[in-house]
Amino acid sequence: MTPTTTKTLYDTDFALWIDETVDRLKAGDFAAIDLDNLIEEVESLGISQRKSVHSFLVRLLEHLLKRCYVPLPDCYRGWEIESRNFRNELKKEFKYSPSLKSFLVEIFEESYGEALESVREDYPDTDFPNVWPFAKDVDTLLTEKFWRDGQ
After folding, report:
1. Element (H, E) at 137
2. Residue 67 in contact with residue 76, Cβ under 8 Å?
3. Cβ atoms 20, 6 nearer than 8 A
4. Distance of alpha carbon 39 from its chain centroid, rounded?
């Protein structure tokens, strides 16, 4: 198949393009690989993982902030469950790509700012801290209950 045909295949049947690309890679037929689109796809995988980590972190921080600062006891259990769910999603990302832990550290302040903006909009009468008041290391974020028992 010519590169033009492969590009057309990429545009018209992505699943078949993947199958053929994998077959060519396994066969060592590198000359027939649609290299431009392959590079684009590999790059997008990394971007996608980072976007997932960013999104899960923002959502985790939102739920932790709500659980720690919003005085609605009827909602505590739901926020705790959601915190656990987002932690589990982050743990999955880190299981397959441990290097993303350093990315989480890089984006923490930005993510906290996004979470803070969101919860302040939803709960304007609640006083949330401008700066994350707890430990920021990945292991603590993924395990610690930042709220007090009985709260």
Report:
1. none
2. yes
3. yes
4. 22
Which of 101, 97, 102, 128 shows the shortest CA–CA distance to 114? 128
> What is the rounded CA–CA span in Å between residue 7 and residue 33?
10
**97 exposed, middle or buried (CB, 10 Å; 0-12, 13-18, 19+)?**
middle
- Confirm whether pTM is higher than 0.85: no
Q: Are 119 and 65 in contact (CB under 8 A)?
A: yes
DSSP state, 28? Answer: T
Mean pLDDT for each 10-residue chunk of the chain (151 residues)?
60 91 94 91 88 98 97 97 98 95 96 98 97 94 81 45
Residue type, 143: T
The terminus-to-terminus CA distance of the chain in angstroms comes to: 65
H or E segment and range at residue 98: none
Eight-class DSSP state of 148: P
Closest C-alpha among 66, 64, 141 to residue 104:
141
